[in-house]
Write a structure and sequence with these properties.
about 20% strand
Length: about 80
Amino acid sequence: MGKTIAPGECVSPMDALKMYVYAPAYAAFEEKAKGTIAPGKLADLVIIDKDPAKIEEGQFMEIKFVMTVIDGKVVWTSGSLIP
C-alpha cells in the first residue's frame, strides 16, 4: 500500500465513491430508487468520521465508520447495535 503503480489510472476519492455507490444503481436501472441520498430514495448508508474529498493521499484507510442506517433506521452506531 502507498505505492502508485499506474498514475494515469488513479481516481479521486469522490470518483471512487461514485463507482461503488451510484454506478451499480445505474447499471441495475435502479438509479431512481438508489445510488444517491434524496427524498423518496432507499436509505441504506453509512456515516464516516472524515470527508473523503478532503483527506490527504494515503489516509483513506484511516476513515472510521460512525453509524449504519438501513431502510431509514439507525442499526449500528460506534460499535453498538441499536434495538
